[in-house]
C-alpha cells in the first residue's frame, strides 16, 4: 500500500491543530501507521530540506522548523501522496483553497502548518529520514471493506 510522510510543523503544534488535522486524514479513510512528537535535530532538518539549502528562505525555514516540537506521521492508503497533498493545499496559504488545511488554518508561506511528501519517491526518502522500520506498524482498519472496492 502507498505511504506518505506528513509532519505538523511547530506552528500547528503550538496552535493546537494536531487533533483537527489528524481527524481530517482519519475521516478520509487513510490509515495512521506511525506517529511521534519530536524536536528535530539540525542534521535531520538539513537532510529533509536539502533541496532548499541554498534558497534565500532557508535560514528562516530552518529556525522555524527547529522552534518547537513537530508531530511526525506516516500515513497509508491508496494514492495517499496525491490525496494528502490536495488536502494540505498550495504551499502559499494565500493561494490555498478553503477546505484545505493551509487554506483553512494559515496566512503566510513560511508558517504553513504542515509538510507532506510530494511524490512516492520523496515519501520513501522522507520516511527513511525520520522513522526506523520498527517504528512503522501494520494493521487492518475495520472499515477497510467499506473504503476499498
Ligand atoms: N518556504 C518558505 N518560503 C518560500 C517557499 C517555501 O518559507 O518562498 C517554506 C514553507 O514552509 C514550505 C517549505 O519551505 O512549506 C518547503 O517548500 P516547498 O516548496 O517544498 O513547499 P511544500 O512542499 O511544503 O508545499
Automatic annotation (TrEMBL):
Transmembrane segments: none annotated. It catalyses: a 2'-deoxyribonucleoside 5'-diphosphate + ATP = a 2'-deoxyribonucleoside 5'-triphosphate + ADP; a ribonucleoside 5'-diphosphate + ATP = a ribonucleoside 5'-triphosphate + ADP. This is Nucleoside diphosphate kinase. It is an enzyme of class 2 (transferase). Residues 1-138 form the Nucleoside diphosphate kinase-like domain. PANTHER family: NUCLEOSIDE DIPHOSPHATE KINASE. SMART domains: NDK. GO terms for biological process: CTP biosynthetic process; GTP biosynthetic process; UTP biosynthetic process. Keywords: ATP-binding, Cytoplasm, Kinase, Magnesium, Metal-binding, Nucleotide metabolism, Nucleotide-binding, Phosphoprotein, Transferase. The active site is at 115 (pros-phosphohistidine intermediate). The keyword Transmembrane helix does not apply. The gene is ndk. SUPFAM superfamilies: Nucleoside diphosphate kinase, NDK. Its EC number is 2.7.4.6. It comes from the Archaea.
Amino acid at each position: 500500500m502507498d505511504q506518505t510522510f506528513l509532519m505538523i510543523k511547530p506552528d500547528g503544534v503550538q496552535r493546537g491543530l494536531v487533533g483537527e488535522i489528524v481527524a481530517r486524514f482519519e475521516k478520509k479513510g487513510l490509515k495512521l501507521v506511525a506517529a511521534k512528537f519530536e524536536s528535530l535535530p539540525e542534521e535531520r532538518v538539513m537532510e529533509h530540506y536539502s533541496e532548499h539549502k541554498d534558497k534565500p528562505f532557508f535560514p528562516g525555514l530552518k529556525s522555524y522548523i527547529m522552534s518547537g516540537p513537530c508531530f511526525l506521521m506516516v500515513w497509508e492508503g491508496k494514492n495517499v501522496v496525491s490525496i494528502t497533498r490536495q488536502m494540505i493545499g498550495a504551499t502559499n496559504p494565500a493561494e490555498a483553497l478553503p477546505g484545505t488545511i493551509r487554506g483553512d488554518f494559515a496566512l503566510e508561506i513560511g508558517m504553513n502548518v504542515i509538510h507532506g511528501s510530494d511524490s512516492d519517491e520523496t515519501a520513501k526518502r522522507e520516511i527513511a529520514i525520520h522513522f526506523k522500520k520498527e517504528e512503522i506498524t501494520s494493521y487492518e482498519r475495520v472499515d477497510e471493506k467499506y473504503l476499498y472496492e
